[in-house]
Amino acid sequence: MAKRERSTAQRLRTSYLSSVISTALVLFLLGVMGLLVVNANRLANHLHDNVKISVIIKDDVSETQAKQFMARIEKQAYTRETQYISKEEAAREMKADLGDDFMDFLEGKNPLPIKIEVKLNSTYFKPDSAASVRNQLASHPEVKDAYYQKSLLEAVSRNVERISTIIFIFVILLLFVSLFLINNTIRLSIYSKRFLINTMKLVGANTSFIRTPFLASSVWQGLISGFIAIVLLLGLVALLRNDFSELLHLTDAKMFAALFAVILVLGSLISFVSTYFIVTKYTKINAEDLYY
Question: Looking at residues 210-218, what average pLDDT do you find?
Fold first, then answer.
């Protein structure tokens, strides 16, 4: 008899452990998708940084006038960031690219113009909007020319939309799959205790009394699974920090706190709701149906 009780207790512990680990892995996947979602804007901005409008200033415009013009550009709604490149900086960049001082052949004269790089806000990061901004900039009397890589802009714009759509679809699909997997895991765990539920019902326990310990256990199970998922996410972040720090925002404490809170709440909530309905079902089932 004692051996049978130990065997039953061992099965229950195995079932509980399996349920916790399965739920934790599902929550971990949800956390990974959460990291992608909260970093979607950073990924988009990283792609946007590769495209900028280069404004070439006329030769007769002084540095003071050019900087005043840049200050006016910075106040425009379309501007996210500007960069001033003086003639000297342009010469140093060209020297680094060529590997030789080209000014030696020009008797020290610098023919390079002042240039202002303009990065656009996300709302203007569309082919039509960028073309309109380029035309506005080119129309100023201080400007000799304004240009940007149109083909690159179109490619990046398409890729940003594609990435956003793919992430959204994956989040929705993974959420439904997660609900199904966690619910199924809890169902199997409670299935192993169906005879215990039936015994409690036979001795006169009502449905609320039977559900209470299962619901309390489900909340703890969800929290434990959530903490395991958080530990796995922290390990993943540690691995990604060095290689993808420019693409992923991995140092925002508030973002992580919010994401971890969502994982804990979601794990507990899904476990609680699934347990509520599954235990209620087994309190209403006939004794002969417990063997099927």
Answer: 84
